[in-house]
Structures are given as C-alpha cells and as structure tokens.
Design a protein that fits this description.
Order of helices and strands: HEEEHEEH
Largest sheet: 3 strands, antiparallel
Strand order of the largest sheet: 2-1-3
Number of helices: 3
Radius of gyration: 44 Å
Distance between the termini: 99 Å
C-alpha cells in the first residue's frame, strides 16, 4: 500500500513539474501606442504605459533565415514542361533516324531490283533462286509505294 501511494504522489509531482515548465516556456508580448501613434512591441513590460498583453505559445518553431524559401524540392511546372519537350524532341530525332535508315534500305533494294532482269535471292532453305519478272516488278512497286508514303 505504501508503494502505491508513493508512486501516485510521484506521478502527481511529475505532472505539476511539467505543467510549471510549460507555463514557464510561454512568453509574454506587450504592445502599446505612443503619443505619436506609433505601435511598439516588446517582450518586457514598459513602465508607465498602457499596454496590451499577449501570450506567445511555446514551440519548437525556429524562424527561417529566408522567409521566402520553399520546402518544395521537386521541379517546377515550367521545368517539367521543358523536360517533356526535350524528351519529345529526342524521340522525334530517334524516329527520324529510324525512318531515314528504313528509307535508305528500301531505296537500295529498288536500285538493286529495278535495272536487273535477273535477280537472285536466297530462300528460307538457304538455296539460291532466281526471282521471276512478275515478283520483281511487284516488289519494286511495293517498295516505291512504301517510299512514297514514308520517305521525303
């Protein structure tokens, strides 16, 4: 029974100490207006002045050295837009390079097939075959159609 009473008294004492510290951490601010109409603020109460007293709550708030500093570390909307434009530009350059390579390949094939009447190719079995004139002209027409649609 003694131990319970001692513990209870100790807990009550701790609560009172913490409450007293909380009150001690609260600061007072005083404001008053002088005879010229200027408003003054102070942490100490001036003598002989009619003052307004305000309590400043205690806190861990540290004033920032730069009041205009932002905590946003991400890129701004303008930076995001610039990145999107740069990515689209890079993608367009890649697409243009691929398209140019494809067009050059088609042109080389047309240049190989068109003037020659005897065109040889290797089939899926690895055998060399001669392309007949109908297949050759159809392939040239197909390649020229692709070039007209996709190449400048």
């Amino acid at each position: 029974m003694k131990h319970v009473t001692i513990r209870l008294l100790f807990a009550v004492l701790v609560v009172f100490v913490l409450a007293a510290q909380g009150e001690a951490q609260e600061k007072k601010m005083y404001s008053w207006t002088d005879e010229n109409g200027t408003i003054h603020f102070s942490e100490s109460k001036p003598a002989g002045q009619d003052v307004m007293e305000q309590t400043i709550p205690a806190g861990d708030q540290q004033p920032s050295s730069n009041p205009y500093a932002t905590t946003d570390t991400g890129p701004s909307a303008a930076d995001q837009r610039r990145q999107e434009i740069a990515q689209k530009r890079e993608q367009a350059q890649v697409n243009q390079a691929v398209n140019s390579a494809q067009c050059a390949s088609w042109k080389a094939e047309v240049d190989r097939l068109e003037p020659n009447r005897r065109v040889f190719f290797t089939n899926e079995q690895g055998e060399t075959e001669r392309m007949d004139d109908v297949k050759r002209t159809d392939r040239v027409a197909e390649l020229k159609s692709l070039m007209a649609k996709n190449c400048k």
